[in-house]
């Protein structure tokens, strides 16, 4: 993402300079001096001066606009100018970057990216099969290398699965990802990596990384919709990688967005079940969706869907009795019976549950969980966003 953002900026600078260059060349042509005689240094000086003039007068105008608003006598033009600037550059998701990404950078990347063939890979074990397709482990086969025989390394059980599930068939579409780790947070919670949480140092670090990853996604207008331990890989360096974007919705383009359709894991999904309110219209064409996305975001706060799943994740990691898959499912059902009120659930469960990890440091973890698991209010708000969760005192050093 950082790389694409860098490319965006570079493109913009080039464009701006080209426009100035054309205007400058035309001025020279009008004055009778042929452009080819120009020295590069002179050209640079004039270009910079031209840009500075433009920038300075723009800034002056905006300062005047702000001053007139502060003085209580705003002009319509000034307010409109400020609104346009706010809309284009400061809203989230950002329509300007979204347009660049969807209509320019994405086709560019599609055309320049490495084109793989099915013969470049040998499929191995099936790793999972969700609602959106199946995931397989694969080996890169070097072109022309006939010595490799991946099938020879498979167990009889894997060979059987490989024949039935793993064949590339004509017309099927495949996404190729780097293999990041063979352990998920689900494995860690099951105790397969040692006793939890000692095997992963601290819960806080995992939660923080998940929130940071989701913050980046939300800034781009993407809601993951399937945040859960099985979709969080843990690398040997203790890094957390969010995977499985099969259910993700891109609010900037409307991709995968159907307001009436929830693709849910009942253990981690919020009570409202949908990213946007039920009465929200279906996704329009991508360009309209892009232009309207900041308004849709402000109105529906789709990102709070993921916040709830993070709240369940915190409960599952911090409360030993909730670490098994069956118990976390029961927890979410019980929460619904308690009207989404975590304190009520605590009263109901009483002394059978160990809240030590949530209650330490002035109940910081408990407070965070309560605010992440709240039902939405009538304005589709009332629950912490991932950015607000990151600023919570739970992440401050303990003393
Ligand atoms: N990039 C990756 N690196 C390593 N393992 C992965 C990767 N992506 C997926 N997996 C493994 O494959 C499993 C299934 O993939 P996932 O994308 O979650 O699909 P689904 O849940 O829809 O079957 C994951 O639980 C994980 O074990
Ligand atoms: Mg998955």
From TrEMBL:
Which Pfam family, any one, appears in the UniProt record?
Pkinase
Organism in which the protein naturally occurs: Dunaliella salina (Green alga)
What InterPro entries does the database record attribute to this sequence? Kinase-like_dom_sf (IPR011009), Prot_kinase_dom (IPR000719), Ser/Thr_kinase_AS (IPR008271)
Protein kinase domain location: 121-395
Keywords from the UniProt entry = Kinase, Transferase
What SUPFAM superfamilies does the record tag this protein with? Protein kinase-like (PK-like)
Name used for this protein in its record: Protein kinase
| Molecular function in Gene Ontology | kinase activity
